[in-house]
Amino acid sequence: MVAVAGFAAGWASADEASVRQALRARIPPNMVIESVTRVPFAGLYEVVLDGEIVYTDEKAEYFFGGTIHDIRTLPPRNVTQERLNQMVVNRLTEARELAIKRVRGNGARTLFTFEDPNCPYCKALQVELAKMDNVTIYTFMLPILSQDSVEKSVAVWCAKDRAAAWDELLSRDVMPKSGMSCRHPLEQIAAIARRFQIQSTPAIFLGNGTLIGGMRSAMDIEKAFAATAR
Which pTM does this prediction carry? Predict the structure, then answer.
């Protein structure tokens, strides 16, 4: 862990472009530099490298992984986790059209889930989500268990009412009746899952990007929402 106590007196002389150029010359060509951003601490740059946050100096002579905490606040802010959460929010928000959308009550709060239709924990989660109100749920189908999971996911996506088809499948194991085939976003969703190292289902993210894990009760999810509101 790297703890940084305060702001530097001045900005580093380098800029993001020069740091990127220097770093590019020193790392393997197959590694993707997604972004380089100066952070408000002396001579330090955040680099998103192949989907992971690392840090480097202004000459790109060293880089390191780890977590930065801003200890000027109580409790200390986990700066790295905040940036990771924001990356998740940005990507999942952009990808909402790939998800099944369900709105409960006024839909004021947001959940993102990754689920497999054959996953028993996803079916249990369905029961818990049905207990919740005032939430918008975006479910990304991630059929990782079997080919049957893929076929069910495609059938749901091609159904006239995707939300109803998903609810029927998860709650009652009833397949959509249309039998239609269509273009689907499963490969795009799988790429997002790889991007955020999602390897099992369900995976649940709050609307602020916080990963709260796998199967959770409605009460646990409500507690997580309450904690982020403080």
Answer: 0.84
Can you state the angle between helices 120-129 and 218-229, rounded to 10 degrees?
60
Report the SS3 class of residue 167: helix
175-201 pLDDT, tens digit each: 987 667 899 999 999 999 999 989 999
Single residue among 78, 104, 127 that ends a domain in this structure: 78
Distances 78 to 7, 81, 133 between C-alpha atoms, Å: 15, 5, 30
In this predicted model, what pLDDT tens digit does every residue of 32-61 receive, in sequence order? 999 999 988 778 899 998 888 999 998 888
- From CA 186, how far away is CA 166, in angstroms rounded? 15
Domain that holds residue 12: 2-78
Please give the Cα distance from 193 to 199 (Å, whole number). 7
Looking at the structure, tell me whether residues 13 and 37 fall in a common domain: yes
Q: Which amino acid is at 157?
A: W
